[in-house]
Structures are given as C-alpha cells and as structure tokens.
Amino acid sequence: MHSEPDRFLSRLFWITTAAALLVLLWNSAAYIEAWFAPNQASPRAVMARGDLAADEKATIELFEKSRDSVVFISTQARVRDFWTRNVFTVPRGTGSGFIWDDAGHVVTNFHVIEGASEATVKLSDGRDYRAGLVGVSPAHDIAVLRIGVGFKRPPPVPLGTSAELKVGQKVFAIGNPFGLDWTLTTGIVSALDRTLGSESGVSIEHLIQTDAAINPGNSGGPLLDSAGRLIGINTAIYSPSGASAGIGFAVPVDTVNRVVPQVIRHGKYLRPGLGIEVDEELNRRLTSLLKVEGVVVLRVAPGSAAAKAGLKGASIGRDGSVVPGDIIVAVEGKPVDSVGKLLSRLDDFKIGDTVRLSVIRDGATTSISASLEPGA
Fold this sequence. Notes:
Blueprint: H1 4-36, H2 54-66, E1 70-80, E2 87-99, E3 105-108, H3 110-113, E4 118-122, E5 128-130, E6 132-137, E7 142-146, E8 170-175, E9 183-196, E10 204-210, E11 222-224, E12 230-237, E13 248-252, H4 253-266, E14 272-273, E15 276-277, H5 280-290, E16 295-296, E17 299-300, H6 305-309, E18 315-316, E19 322-323, E20 327-331, E21 334-335, H7 339-346, E22 354-361, E23 364-371, E24 373-374
Antiparallel strand pairs: 1-2, 1-4, 2-3, 3-7, 4-5, 6-7, 8-9, 8-11, 9-10, 10-13, 11-12, 12-13, 14-24, 15-17, 16-20, 18-19, 20-21, 20-22, 22-23
C-alpha cells in the first residue's frame, strides 16, 4: 500500500506532466497555424514626422544653395615606362575646389595640384572640364585653375570675411573626402590665428581651426559660415592616422581674397618686401652667436625700400668675420624670430603700405619706418 505522501507526490507528478503537455500542444498548434496560414504581414504605418527643426532647415538650405559652387578635382601625372620609354597618364589624386568668379576661375589648394600634369574639374551636374593652371602661391597653399564653361555657369561662392570670426560659431565644410563627392560636414570654429609651417620655410599664418570633419579629399574645398559665405579654404588636418581627428585647418578668406586676385593677374603672388637679403640657415647661426632673436639683414639692395628707409646690411670684418648691421626684431610691434616669420609678418600688409620696424643697431633698439615694395 502507498502512503499518503506517496499518493500526493504521484498526483503532483501527473498534474505537472499534464500541464507541460498542454503547453506543448498549445505552442505546436500556434506554430502549425503560422506555418500553414497564408502570409498576411503588411508594412507598418509610418508615423507623421512634423516640421524639421529650424537649424535643420537652415543647414539643408545652405547646402542646396552652395553645392553647385563646389567642384570635384581629379589630377593625373605623366610617367614614362622604363622599358618602352612610352609616356602615359596615370591618376594621381583627388581634391576639392570652388568657383571663384564668372570667368571660370576655380580656387583650390596648391598641394592638390602639385606635381600633376593635368587636372579635371567636375561640376555638380556631372559635366567634366579640362582645367588650365592660372597660377599658384605655395606659401599660402593656394592654386587657381580655369575652366571654360559655355552655359549654365555655376555661381561663385559668396564671399565673407575672416576678421570677424568668433570661436564657437558654426561652420560648414563641403568637399569630396576619400572621393565621396559633395559631402557636407558641420562643426564650429575651434580656435583662430593658428600657424602651420610649410615646406617653403614660410609659415602660413592666421589659420582657422575647426572641428568640422575634414579628411583627405576635402582639401581645397570651402569652409562656410551659417550665412553660406566663404570664410576659408580647408587645407590641412592634424591626425596621427591621416583621418579626421577633430582638428582641421583652413586658410582664412581674407588671405585668399588678397592672394587670388594677384595670382589671376600676374600668375603668381607678389609678396610685399623690403628689398633686403636674408638667409634662414645663416640667420640661425648668427642670432645664436649674437644671442638675440630676430632677422639679421645681410644686404640692402640699392634703391630699395630698405635703402630709402636707412636700413644697414652686414659687412665683412678685416678678419673675415661677419659684422652684423641691423637686426629686425619686430614688425608693427609683433616679434619676429626667423626669416619665415618676418616674411609672414610683412605678408599681412599690401605693397605700398608703410610698416614700423623695430631694429637692433649697435646694441640699441630703434624704430624705422619703411614702405613695402614687390618682393620675390
């Protein structure tokens, strides 16, 4: 005979088993019904979005108005086959640019077209044009191309100013990063008046720093303010990996607007100068020896602006040593500690402007005013 607890456990077992079987049968019936029933699934209803936010509308409008003024630049280089000696053209790289005026001038970075034998400019409507090189200013990383557009001329980018920029204001970059054409990125002005060195030894001054994503291929494209005005040319990034790290630089439009008209007119940029001879390597040695920071004037050209201002060059002593003349230590109160910095300081002015130079002469500092003339 079974005890009362045994009978209880037996009943519990059968009740649990029956419940499990019922659940299994229920699920099986549901699966069988879903398998054999006709597929009656339909797309879900789309929720109404409502109006776009005001800043979204403004950004969309800015891009749509600016897009046609931005171009895609692809460059080619001629190479010679070592064995056959045949010359053929190979792709070299891509970059961005923008329409400068109604004459078909296109502005981009010098490093976008440097070393190329040909350049092709593609408009937003798909038209391609062979571009001619008008001129360059390597010291500003600026190049000007020209295309012949017979009809439906794309509009020039509206011009702004960089003198009024404030850290924190919104900026918009349009370009062709990694060949992905007509890409818009946004950000803010992160800093102003940055300086980057160049291979020519002359630093590029007054650069705009931005966190708008700038990648290879963005070079030469426009940096715009929230009014859609040009405020700079995207020119460089700071990144160990070569991709955007949130630190990009743009040549300010005030520099562009000073350089580009000269490049169009003369084929090059006529740098404001004094008519003095200087040398970067020799200057480093002399200033180190003299324990000063500045630029040693080696020679003053006869009849030059420097000669008219009374600047004195170095001379050779009886023992063959260099006897320093004047040492320029500041331009309009802004210090100079190298030849590159001196040239950059003078570049803030126009030919014909009068500048005040702080000069060390015979151990004492004096002030000399000189008018700027076309330099090399």
